[in-house]
């Protein structure tokens, strides 16, 4: 039995609508997929370097690492020959002070004492000499026990500095040795970048820690000596005030300057090397 025409037309309307909605959904989905694919490809092209640029970057980085290693080793050696590790100035009255216009005029004789990091015994003996001169001007003949204890503390801290210094040089030397060995293996087609580079990182971290300890010991040495000098200057000033005269001896300890700046520079170079190595191992 044939169905009425009006019923057939009513049945075809929903079918056409559902088919039309399906086509729109498929077209929208394909458009979104194409857009996501285009964006991902565009980002990946800009993020991943080309093989040529990556190779050149690695060459620049490994040459920079080797150069910084040589500079760090050279600066560490120069640091131990720096005479500004400890600087003490002593001013002594040269002649009898004269009064001019109701003011005392004195002529002071300046003596400078400079010590390198490795000159422990010479530096400590000069410190004792300066302190004993000031102590004798106060009218004391027997040594001050507190001052002697502080000088012994300075001596121990200075010895600790000189005892860990060879470890600093050893870490810097082994870092260069690892880099040279890595280059030799790479030349013969046996690349071991990861293992040797990680070994270099540990050596650089160790050297940075050692250099930080050296900075701390250097500060402690200068601080302890400055405490003795300030104590003696205070007593000499009190004695001069009671006598209404000028101080016979003045001791000045120079604060850390170029030596400290050089130490901080070496630590910074070590951290910069570690950054370059990490960038070399993972350029992306």
Automatic annotation (TrEMBL):
Keywords associated with the record: Membrane, Transmembrane, Transmembrane helix
Domain of life assignment: Eukaryota
Spans through the membrane: 60-81, 196-213, 257-281
The keyword Membrane is assigned to this record: yes
Name of the protein this chain belongs to: Uncharacterized protein
Source organism of the structure: Fasciolopsis buskii
